[in-house]
Design brief:
The protein is α/β, with parallel strands linked by helices. It has 8 helices and 5 strands. The protein is globular.
Length: 204
């Protein structure tokens, strides 16, 4: 079984992945942020490094999805291959930070990869307002995220909403996280777990 969590920067994907993995005894697969050799350069010089960064993420997540399916285990994944292709890369292209040539090359590669992998059994989308995202980003204090603008987050949020509205690859659960604190409040985590239980019971 493959569960995936989607959501904007700061929505709480990693924290929820950790909590759900612990509760359900699922194996967590996290986004490759620590070892990503392009991330720091990208945030300082987006136009120069956008294509390299997106290709790195695409490669990393494609590999991840293949491993998930081959493992036969119950796995929860922090962020999906779709978010790179439907949100981050088109946003960089629209902002003039990725050339037409690079974007077409990237999109063509994604389409090929997408044809070879299955969608998650359940996609959990963490919906968040911009003030909540900003608050969470400041709270965790990652240095390379200090330069992220509210305009950038807003553009991403709009793309997330558009993507989720048209998502039809499998089961989808939308959770509004603005008033939830699943890290420090067991009741909030319980609320999320109950919602997920209701969905995954229908998967078997």
């Amino acid at each position: 079984m493959h569960i995936a969590i989607a959501g904007n920067i700061g929505a709480g994907k990693t924290s929820l992945t950790q909590s759900l993995a612990k509760h359900f005894k699922w194996e967590p697969h996290y986004e490759d942020v620590v070892d990503n050799p392009y991330l720091d350069d990208f945030y300082h010089q987006m136009e120069r490094w956008s294509f390299n960064l997106q290709i790195y993420f695409l490669n990393s997540r494609f590999r991840q999805v293949l491993q998930i399916r081959e493992s036969g285990k119950k796995i929860i994944q922090d962020r999906t291959i779709y978010e790179d292709a439907h949100i981050f890369a088109p946003n960089l292209h629209a902002m003039g930070l990725m050339t037409n040539r690079d974007f077409q090359n990237y999109s063509s590669l994604f389409e090929l990869m997408e044809s070879l992998v299955a969608a998650p059994d359940l996609l959990i989308y963490l919906r968040s307002s911009i003030p909540n995202l900003v608050s969470q980003i400041h709270k965790r204090g990652r240095e390379y995220e200090n330069t992220i603008s509210i305009d950038y987050l807003s553009r991403l949020n709009e793309r997330y909403e558009a993507w989720i509205t048209g998502y039809n690859k499998g089961k989808l659960l939308i959770i509004d996280v603005d008033n939830l604190d699943f890290v420090n409040n067991p009741e909030d985590l319980g609320y999320v777990i109950n919602k997920i239980n209701a969905e995954i019971n229908g998967l078997f």
